[in-house]
Request: fold
Amino acid sequence: MSNVTVIGAQWGDEGKGKIIDWLSNRADMVVRFQGGNNAGHTIVVGDKTYKLSLLPSGVVQGKRSIIGNGVVVDPWSLLEEIAKVGAAGLSVTPDLLVLAENACLVLPLHRELDALREEASSQKIGTTKRGIGPTYEDKVGRRAIRAIDLKDPASLPGKIERLLAHHNVLRRGFGAAEVDAGALLKLLNEIAPKIAPFLGSSWRELDAARKAGKRILFEGAQAVLLDIDHGTYPFVTSSNTVAGQAAAGAGVSPRAIGTVLGIVKSYTTRVGEGPFPTELKDATGEKLGERGHEFGTVTGRKRRCGWFDAVLVRQTCVTGGVDGITLTKLDVLDGFDEIKICVAYELDGQTLDYLPADANLQARLTPVYETLEGWKDTTAGARSWAQLPANAIKYVKRVEELIGAPVALLSTSPDRDDTIMVQDPFVDR
Ligand code: IMP
Reply:
């Protein structure tokens, strides 16, 4: 039985939420495998809009959903989100949601450290200040509190002592008040009974599901250009966002992740700091932002906008392991006389067909553009190729050619049903 892994192939906000929701209708289980509540997935179903951060998008379709071990979990935020979607009519019970017992917890001290660091440095990353980076640091530093620890209150004081031995030194350096071990223990003991019913084993659930021939959808957050290894370091998130992480972050074989679908916006956006070769700081950039409603789901920050960068996406298809793409928000390009695509970079008199690893060089790239004729008719809401203007089809075909990956799905509005399927990602290739 084939599975599907969905990842972002630019800097995030490509519209993964809608596609994952659409695909989860055809899956038996949905699994998050990295990131945390720095992610924001918007799902529109009829007149209802759900904004999910930590919950796998499968909950909207009532599909069994797993928060895998690769995710860092703010338990207070998780309970708040469960309450919020509950108020909107979605009941998320332990029958529906499993939280991997070996996932690491985001604590208030992580959020505070994230903010302290951002404020202290002139070299800002522009993080979401959700404590994601500091939690992954503690995970790798082997001092994180894990979800399973909530079930073993006797072990908590020792674990807290180990964690604070590190954090209180840092906090003193920042001039922040030290964290009181007793107060943190109380917080964790209070939340433990509310989280405990959701705890389970991600790898065992998935192993059983695979043996029973179930279809699994692996849901990525953020995107390849924000990957800790393959992104625009240091302006990245703190996890691996490439498809390979689906295996490690859920506890399955790399061969189990199935077809990898990269989600690609028809232009480019970025939230936060860092290089962005095709960024448009002019009226065209403003127009893309307004038409695409480009404001962050999590932080409300205005997204930076620019033309489609085929060099970047060709690269992320390789590093991310993408088999095919979903192109989203084509309708935002409706009505432009001309549309540009970046096909190479110029740097010190040389032409480059890839993104160099050095952040200083990335910041100095000049895009080389190819100009395509725009289209006047709308693509919004199209549900078949026949409904697309000829120049819009030419644009899609040119994107495919330049990035070297086929378009499997085309999304023409935030609505679940406005999706054109070219190739079924769940069918084995
Ligand atoms: P962090 O993940 O909060 O540490 O933020 C690191 C960088 O990743 C910042 O540039 C954020 O704006 C960016 N980022 C994190 N999550 C998302 C997301 O879901 N969409 C887009 N950008 C994100």
In short: Residues 12-13, 38-40, 125-128, 130, 132-133, 221-222, 226, 235, 237-238, 271-272 surround inosinic acid (CB under 6 Å).
